[in-house]
Amino acid sequence: MFGWILLALVVVGVGYFIGIYNALVRLRNRVKNAWSQIDVQLKRRHDLIPNLVETAKGYMKHERETFEEVTKARSRAMDANTVGEKSQAETGLSGALGRFMLVVENYPDLKANQNFLALQEELTSTENKIAFSRQSYNDAVLFFNNKIQMFPSNIIANTFNFNAEEFFEIEDAAEKEVPKVSFADKQGG
Amino acid sequence: MMWELIRQNRRKSLILFAGMALLLSVLGYAVGAVFNPEQGGIIGLILAIGLWITLTLISVSSGDDIILKISQAREVTPDVHPRLFNVVEEMKIAAGLPAMPKVYIVDDPSPNAFAIGIKPEKSAVAVTAGLLEQLNRDELQGVVAHEVSHIANRDSQLMTVAGIMLGSIVLISHFFLRSMWFMPSSSRRYRKDSGGGDPRLQLIMVVVAIALAILAPIFARLLYLAVSRKREYLADATAAQFTRYPEGLASALEKISSSALPLESANKVTAPMYIVNPLLKKDMKLSSLGSTHPPTEQRIKILRGMAGRADYLSYQRAFSKVTKKHSAVIPASGLRNTKRVQARTASPGDVESKSNKKTARDVMDLMRAVNGYAFLVCACGLKIKLPPELAKPAIDCPKCGRENKIPGAELATVGAVVGAVAGTDGEAILDADPDASQSGERYEYHRKGTGWETFACACGNRLQLSPAFKGTVVGCRLCGRNTTIK
Predict the structure, then answer these.
(1) Which of B160, B174, B248, B302 sits CB 3.0–4.6 Å from B142 for a disulfide?
(2) Which of A113, A129, A175 sits opposite B89 (nearest CB)?
(3) A 96-125 near B (Cβ less than 8 A)
(4) Is B121 known to be catalytic?
(5) For residue B381, what are the domain limits?
């Protein structure tokens, strides 16, 4: 009788262990999958930049510094390896591209160039896709990190080397901005 | 959180479904009982449910294709309109759809859009050519986000199921009332022969059945419309959250509702699917029980009242403020633990610098691309448009007279890159049907100098311009087309 109870406990325990282990694997794969979605878009952005610079060069002869800034930021972003490094480098690249686009505003001929417009559309779309896939990646990371830090799954996570994943944050100028509208409202009312 | 919304939607579909199923069964039973008081009730019930099952099976298997066909939507490839595809893909990522929706363009200058799909795995987004012409990137993104959230929230699913139920009820009532009108004597005789029961009970049965046949479609429609209106608000809120830019959708709705052009391919059945009701007159502002959409003005006001934010809670607050109602558009689960989402700023470089003439030309090109036209650029820079039924191995350039070979299979897949052909200073349309000249097609020829010049009319006939020619229009003697000389 006692033997049977022991056996039942062992079976339940092993089943529980397998369940947690599989859940951890599933969550880690979800993080990896979400990351590959971002990575595809980041690569696409890196590929677009040389074309963009090449097209713009003919029109913007006196903006060598702007071009250099963008090119340097791009190579830094391409050299980055970990998620943390990448998010830092990509933030730099986004900033450089933002300044580049501001300079472009002074060149109406370039803005009328069909090739440039098509590249700009691709770049805008790629940046949007990065922003949207970033949300689902960070959600997946939060879920996974919670799981490996909470009891009892943390025991299994520690034994089998499930490590916490890094969040991917690209700082957006618009996000950091103080909401001016609400300030004005308060003063007015 | 999205999942809770979807679960809530599923629960609501079930309630709606149960209510309508009850209505359908009672109606079927009552109608059957009038024709034959003994077994007719059960037979009527079975027939009503049989009708509903048949309609459901048809719509699940090929409903999407039927609707797309009725709306005259054509599936397009990414090169026809890269921006539209980009925006749909962005929203697919934001909504976490399992598969990319198919993209359709409706060849119509009136701006509007709709989405269909029983399952998110197999869905489609359709926009009109007029929408692509009039909206900038942010606005297009807002509209596509609204449509994709219909797919993600399973609205298309709910409305299809409810719509079929409504259709069955309307069909049965219609059939019953007609039959009462046309053969009252025969059915009465039939009942007398069968000799079933009390004649007074039968009279009551007839009265009840007629009342049901009149009231059931009205009641079912009201139920359907109430759900439909709420779904529109929810899709607006979700779109604001997806794009983080409520102003995009707001200004798109403004442009769509202020358009005076009617949408030719819309009808009563398909109207509830569109982002703005295509059949509504502009001066009908107030929401009534009979409308499928909330008043557009109110939707715009709510979106603009979100005070620089883009989350569900801000939408709900703006909704209560604008409508003065405290009903919840967004299920409570959607409002819980929502992060405050700051609205983003407008996309850079999205100023409409293009001239109106240029845009109009782009749209014409777009429509031609949708209709299967191919494009060929001559060495002189002229973009020649080839209709799909053209079957010649080579064509003379109408501007410089050069012979251009038509690369067969290659060209068929080229499609149009809208406005991407740089340096087109002239345009010529080789149209296969001569009716086109009446439908407002313009032909232009740009003079190179002041000497003798030869050019080809759109029909292929060669025309000469003398050095003394000072006019602006040349008529072709063969086809009667007029070509403007510049």
Answers:
(1) B248
(2) A129
(3) 98, 101-102, 104-105, 108, 111-115, 118, 120-122, 124-125
(4) no
(5) 356-485
B342: contact with A, CB 8 A cutoff: yes
Q: How confident is the model at residue B101 (pLDDT cuts 50, 70, 90)?
A: very high
Q: Are residues B64 and B212 located together in one domain of the fold?
A: yes
| The domain boundary residue, chosen from B283, B315, B343 | B343
Residues 45-84 of B with CB under 8 A from A: 82-83
**Of B27, B43, B25, B48, whose CA–CA distance to B205 is shortest?**
B27
Residue B435: the pLDDT is 44
Residues B233 and B170 in one domain: yes
Among A121, A116, A68, A124, which residue's Cα sits nearest to residue A96?
A68
B349–A37 CB contact, under 8 Å:
no
Percent of chain B beyond pLDDT 90? 11
A174 → closest Cβ in B87, B141, B344 = B344
Q: How confident is the model at residue A20 (pLDDT cuts 50, 70, 90)?
A: very high
Same domain, B113 and B192: yes
> Are B321 and B415 part of one and the same domain?
no
- pLDDT tens, residue by residue, A139-185: 889 889 998 898 888 888 888 889 888 888 876 554 444 444 444 44
Judge whether B215 and B279 are in contact, CB under 8 Å: no
Of B290, B322, B343, the residue at which a domain comes to its end is B343
Domain shared by B373 and B227, yes or no: no
Q: Are B95 and B149 in contact (CB under 8 A)?
A: yes
Residue B194: pLDDT band (50, 70, 90) is very low
Average pLDDT over residues B437-446: 60
Write down the catalytic residue from B89, B90, B139, B147.
B147
Same domain, B326 and B389: no
Contact A122, B83 (CB under 8 A): no
Is residue B405 within 8 Å of residue B444, measured between CB atoms?
no
Lookup: tokens for B207? 């009265």
